[in-house]
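TASK: fixed-backbone design
INPUT:
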């Protein structure tokens, strides 16, 4: 099943422009095909989860959307604009920001400084020796807002490298949202967390994605079914289903391909 509703216009799904639109997206490395013709729409304001077994191509698909990898063929549009051939920072400026499966922060910088790096870039500031960064009140105000959102205000002066794992993941989400993007993509945001840490992460993700478009890869089915408005299932580089959580849970093909083994691993 594909989420596409109108093949004649790749920007339109139903009656609105998709926040994220993929059409016949393919990626291969040498002779090995990883992504095999993915069609998918993520609607403005929805929380959309991508699930599938290991090796299905989920992270590769994320790298294509964020510009880390180039397409072999196909089309990807962000907020109605093609991103084919664009570099990651150009895609970010269109309103899309992402986190990584492996935590990607500056360990020697403080929580505040990590977030400030993202805020400075998003506000158009570049290196200049004639003014002190601490004098930029709008930047500081935005950093304070982000730290409050991710519950790290009390850790503002703490080097990121000594934060707990869950705090580091929260910080990475903070870096991703610091530019106030319209689309947030998260790659396994709760990986490696305990049950209590996962519960806090779910509430954090729900809070920071309010009014925005969320697209995430996640293996924890409690997170997926607790957050997602719709779920797409990727198996061997192809989307085999895209539907509401209730229908995905009851889809026999999905259960055979993935959900059954995922539920067994959880017990």
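OUTPUT:
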């Amino acid at each position: 099943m594909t989420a596409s509703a109108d093949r004649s216009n790749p920007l339109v799904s139903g009656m609105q422009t998709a926040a994220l639109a993929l059409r016949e997206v393919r990626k291969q490395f040498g002779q090995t095909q990883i992504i095999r013709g993915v069609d998918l729409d993520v609607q403005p304001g929805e929380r959309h989860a991508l699930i599938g077994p290991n090796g299905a191509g989920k992270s590769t698909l994320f790298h294509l959307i964020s510009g880390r990898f180039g397409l072999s063929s196909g089309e990807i549009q962000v907020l109605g604009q093609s991103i084919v051939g664009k570099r990651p920072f150009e895609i970010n400026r269109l309103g899309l920001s992402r986190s990584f499966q492996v935590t990607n922060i500056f360990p020697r910088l403080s929580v505040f400084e990590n977030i400030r790096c993202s805020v400075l870039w998003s506000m158009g500031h570049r290196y200049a020796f004639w003014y002190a960064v601490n004098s930029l009140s709008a930047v500081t105000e935005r950093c304070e807002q982000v730290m409050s959102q991710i519950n790290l205000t009390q850790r503002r002066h703490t080097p990121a490298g000594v934060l707990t794992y869950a705090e580091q993941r929260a910080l990475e989400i903070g870096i991703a949202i610091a530019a106030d993007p319209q689309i947030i993509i998260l790659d396994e945001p709760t990986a490696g967390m305990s049950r209590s840490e996962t519960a806090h992460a779910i509430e954090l993700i729900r809070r920071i994605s309010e009014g925005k478009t969320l697209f995430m890869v996640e293996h924890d089915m409690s997170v997926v079914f607790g957050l997602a408005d719709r779920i797409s299932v990727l198996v061997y580089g192809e989307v085999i289903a895209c539907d509401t959580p209730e229908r995905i849970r009851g889809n026999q093909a999905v259960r055979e391909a993935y959900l059954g083994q995922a539920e067994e691993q959880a017990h």
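COMMENT: Confidence is low (pLDDT under 50) at residues 1-13.
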